[in-house]
Design a protein that fits this description.
The complex is a heterotrimer of chains A (262), B (358) and C (276). Helix content of chain A is 81%, strand content 0%. Chain B is of the alpha+beta class. In chain B, helix 2 packs across helix 3 and helix 2 runs parallel beside helix 4. In chain C, 36% of the residues lie in helices and 24% in strands. In chain C, the strands form two sheets. In chain C, strands 2-1-3-10-4-11 form a six-stranded mixed beta sheet. A five-stranded mixed beta sheet of chain C has the order 7-6-8-5-9, with helices on both faces. Chain C contains ten helices and eleven strands. Chain C folds into two domains: 145 residues, D-Maltodextrin-Binding Protein, domain 2 (3-Layer(aba) Sandwich), CATH 3.40.190.10; 105 residues, 3-Layer(aba) Sandwich (D-Maltodextrin-Binding Protein, domain 2), CATH 3.40.190.10. The chains are: A mainly alpha (262), B alpha+beta (358), C alpha/beta (276). Chains in contact: A-B, A-C. At the A-C interface, helix 5, helix 10 and helix 11 of A face helix 3 and strand 7 of C.
């Protein structure tokens, strides 16, 4: 019994420390900037451009990841096939790569001289320095989050439901759409939230691959970083804005499952 | 007609089963868990493929290993009621039942019409808007049945349809299910581990043991000519159907079986339809009218005597009594009593011997 | 040449193995030196990357016991980090502005001394499909130009040089604006500009003369900017007030200003101040 109380205290202490680590930087950020200043900064073109670009690109990349990731997740949730382990590792790779390394990789693949890029260049299409490059970089680093979450969601669906559907004239496709997907919605939403958050915060790969140009490739994290180098107050204000936005949107996403459940 | 020849190996388990079934009949697969009964259902439904074999429904071949033919599950005219029902939790009862119709991309009006019809047929129209989580076990079972029936299967498979219910519900649902299944035009194959259920539901019964069908036939055949000791013990039971016509002193119910009266102990209400199962070993044979406490004594000739495999040390004695019963006695007793076909005997059955259920 | 580290301008690992090597090598005919010892941290503008590493090694050789650690980044980034309390001994900026920034916050010990100068050049990717043979071609619509961000010294210098070319003989009145319209990225230090052009991702960029190293020269074409329109970048160096190792710091600054130091700088295409 004594041991229990102590372990409870220890657990409480650990939790408090962890929460402090999470809360303190956030609180410091918000306390530093008065709301009036925040609103004023919000109106400056640098900020509105960066914010708009961040929202646009992160939503686009998240959507792309969801659409392209669903089949991959479904494939990985199914039975084994030759090369499945390789595919799993490949999907996990962007999570492990330092973002800058990812950026270099993207350059070597899609840059003007890149493996794919050199095919596109004669057609007049270059990817670096465009908003498309930003979306590509975000999709690359954030992809694994959704795929893994979706896969876990699919795997959690009772096999009995799939069998039942089969006996009810349901093809694999119909079963996926009408049974697997609806039953995985909470996992899919959580995965989408994580992916969107990661895409929103993406920096290293973006600045290496897409470059830094306000209105085209300068997303909020880039704007913060550049501002940090010469104007701390501006950087703090930008950070606070990004923080508030991200928090609000994540909150909404977390509430969606309980709303859709009705 | 359904004809099935199934061979499948799962690890150390070998399944080798061949059988056929006709429309309108209910074939029961009975045996202990692990015997392979559910595997047979899965193979018929196409949820699993055999290693070797053939499954055909009249002219339609659903599986043929020789011709490398295997129809995917969703294209087979099969309906399946799962043991735990597997009702889709995210859909209402109506949508669950309509699922098979929508999956075939039928127009909405047709879907609604057919689904409503089945809901009415099964008597759950009032549950249409509810979710499976809100239903009782018995209600869920009916929804599962309705859902399977909506796709108009030519073969209806039921995997332990009563196992997920508590004892009380089971008794109620059992009677209802039996009536429903009896009316169905399709081939019905039902799996159970309960010999009583098998006797109740089965027009024909297949005893499955260790991946093999040990014996297949109507009740009476299993009763009279059990091919193995196992079959004798499991399924070689007297099965009588009747109605309680009166009560006697001491709490005895008198059951009119249509073929004679049986006195049965136990709390049975009058006018109740009841099924009686009597173990042949509980029937004792006498050459002269017995004196003793047995409340049931039937006299009649021995119609047939069948030594039980494997050794014949037990003998099935088929009696032409009213009601007709089969007793099981030792070979020794046969010799001692000098029993022969045609001998007139008195069979006594204690009132406590018949097991009753509705 | 690989793209510079963007996250960590402090390449801590670089100094140490070299230190060890130099320590070993220094067990030779060098005189017993009871001079500065210990750790020395030098923050320098990105354009000084190669030359200051060399000078750092020289210092280590002369002063066994000294280990030099470098931080290379845009001067604006270094200045802000010093302001935030980075433990640095020496700061070498690519322009006066960021040195002033640090000095105005009372972070400099003594005075800042100009130690070298630099000029701008335009580099053009050899693999570029665009035909860029003259400075005027930078204004051609559709070509991709990379500059450093405006807060970076070379970024500011570049924009200044472009403005000077407005209306110059042979140049359009709005030359600068046209070139700026072709800018596709604002890099955070000069090495970022170099790498984008080297990789062939951008067609052209404006960097320092000193950035055209032998390695780079193979990958790019160089267009000179006439002295008349060119900008002379003035690099100041200073010991910081909070320097953990003032002795070694002073030794390093002396080395940089010494004839040897100036020679090394000239060898790296910088313009020395103490011309001898």
């Amino acid at each position: 019994m004594l041991a229990d109380r102590w372990s409870a205290r220890l657990a409480g202490l650990a939790a408090a420390l962890f929460l402090a680590l999470l809360v303190l930087p956030v609180a410091s950020l918000l306390l530093r900037v008065p709301p009036g200043v925040l609103l004023e900064r919000l109106r400056s073109p640098v900020v509105t451009q960066a914010l708009w670009l961040s929202l646009l690109t992160s939503l686009a990349s998240s959507l792309a990841v969801i659409v392209l990731g669903l089949p991959v997740a479904y494939l990985l949730a199914g039975r084994a096939f030759p090369g499945k382990r390789v595919l799993e590792t490949l999907v996990d790779l962007p999570m492990v790569l330092p973002p800058t390394v990812a950026g270099v990789g993207l350059l070597l693949a899609f840059g003007r001289m890149g493996l794919v890029g050199r095919v596109l260049t004669p057609l007049g299409m270059t990817i670096p320095f465009t908003t498309a490059a930003v979306i590509l970089a975000q999709a690359f680093v954030a992809g694994p989050f959704f795929v893994n979450a979706a896969r876990a969601g699919f795997e959690a669906v009772e096999p009995q439901y799939l069998r039942a559907a089969a006996t009810l004239r349901s093809s694999a496709g119909y079963t996926f759409l009408r049974v697997v997907l609806p039953l995985s919605v909470p996992a899919l939403l959580a995965g989408a939230a994580m992916t969107w958050a990661r895409a929103l915060g993406e920096f290293g790969a973006t600045i290496t691959f897409a470059g830094n140009l306000p209105g085209v490739t300068q997303t909020m994290p880039l704007a913060v970083y550049i501002a940090l180098q010469s104007d701390l107050e501006a950087a703090v204000a930008l950070s606070a804005i990004l923080l508030v936005f991200s928090f609000a949107l994540l909150l909404v996403l977390r509430h969606l499952p309980s709303v859709t459940a009705r | 007609m359904l004809s099935a020849d199934l061979h499948k190996r799962l690890g150390a388990f070998h399944l080798d089963a061949s059988f056929s079934a006709e429309p309108g009949e209910t074939l029961v697969l009975v045996g202990e868990s692990g015997a392979g009964k559910s595997t047979i259902l899965n193979l018929l439904a196409g949820l699993m493929d055999p290693d070797r074999g053939r499954v055909a429904l009249d002219d339609t071949v659903l599986y043929d290993s020789e011709r490398r033919l295997s129809t995917p599950a969703h294209l087979r005219p099969v309906g399946f009621v799962f043991q735990e029902y597997a009702l889709f939790p995210h859909l209402s009862v109506f949508e669950n039942v309509a699922f098979g119709l929508r999956a075939q991309r039928l127009p909405d009006a047709a879907v609604v019409r057919s689904a409503r019809a089945v809901l009415d047929q099964v008597g759950i129209a009032d549950l249409a808007a509810r979710r499976p989580q809100e239903l009782s076990g018995g209600q869920r079972q009916r929804v599962a049945l309705a859902r399977a029936l909506t796709v108009e299967p030519r073969v209806l498979l039921l995997d332990e349809p009563l196992a997920a219910l508590d004892l009380q519900t089971r008794a109620q649902v059992r009677a209802e299910l039996r009536r429903r299944l009896a009316d169905l035009p399709c081939i019905t194959i039902l799996v159970t581990h309960s010999p009583h259920e098998a006797l109740l539901f089965g027009d024909r019964i297949a005893v499955v043991d260790g991946g093999r069908i040990v014996q297949l036939g109507p009740r009476d055949e299993l009763l009279r000519h059990p091919r193995t000791d196992y079959v004798a013990q499991l399924m070689g039971l007297n099965f009588l159907q009747g109605r309680v016509v009166s009560k006697e002193a001491g709490g005895l119910a008198v059951v009119e079986t249509g073929n004679g009266l049986m006195r049965v102990a136990g709390p049975l209400d009058e006018e109740r339809e009841v099924f009686l199962v009597i173990d042949p070993r509980e029937i004792t044979l006498h050459l002269t009218p017995p004196s003793g406490s047995a409340q049931n004594v039937f006299s009649g000739p021995i119609v047939e005597m069948v030594p039980e495999p494997p050794f014949g040390d037990r003998v099935r004695v088929v009696l032409g009594t009213t009601p007709p019963v089969v007793a099981e006695v030792t070979a020794r007793a046969v010799d001692d009593l000098g029993l022969r076909e045609g001998s007139h005997v008195h069979a006594s059955v204690k009132a406590t011997a018949p097991r009753t259920f509705r | 040449m690989p793209a510079p580290d963007r996250f960590l301008p402090l390449r801590l690992a670089r100094g140490l193995p070299l230190t060890a090597l130099c320590l070993l090598l220094s067990f030779g005919p060098s005189p017993a030196w009871s001079g500065p010892a210990g750790h020395l941290t030098v923050f320098s503008a990105a354009s000084l990357t190669d030359v200051f590493v060399v000078l750092g090694k020289v210092l280590e050789q002369r002063n066994p016991g000294v280990g030099v650690t470098h931080g290379f980044a845009g001067s604006q980034q270094l200045a802000t980090q010093i302001e935030q309390g980075a433990r640095v001994d020496v700061f070498a900026s690519a322009d006066q502005r960021w040195m002033d920034y640090v000095r105005q916050r009372g972070l400099v010990a003594g005075v800042a001394t100009e130690f070298v100068r630099n000029m701008l050049v335009v580099i053009v990717a050899r693999s570029s499909p665009a035909r860029i043979a003259r400075l005027q071609d930078l204004a051609t619509p559709g070509i991709k130009v990379v500059l450093a961000a405006a807060a970076v010294p070379v970024g500011r210098y570049s924009r200044e040089a472009l403005d000077r070319l407005n209306g110059a003989p042979g140049f359009a009145q709005d030359y600068a604006q046209r070139v700026l319209r072709n800018v596709v990225s604002h890099e955070e230090n000069v090495r970022g500009v170099v790498s984008k052009v080297q990789l062939g991702e951008a067609d052209a960029g404006i960097v320092y003369r000193s950035d055209v190293t032998p390695a780079t020269a193979g990958r790019v074409l160089v267009l000179d900017i006439p002295d008349r329109y060119n900008v002379v970048a003035s690099y100041p160096i200073a010991v910081l007030r909070a320097a953990p190792n003032p002795a070694a710091a002073a030794a390093f600054v002396s080395l940089v200003l010494s004839p040897l130091g100036q020679r090394v700088l000239r060898d790296h295409n910088f313009t020395p101040v103490n011309a001898r």
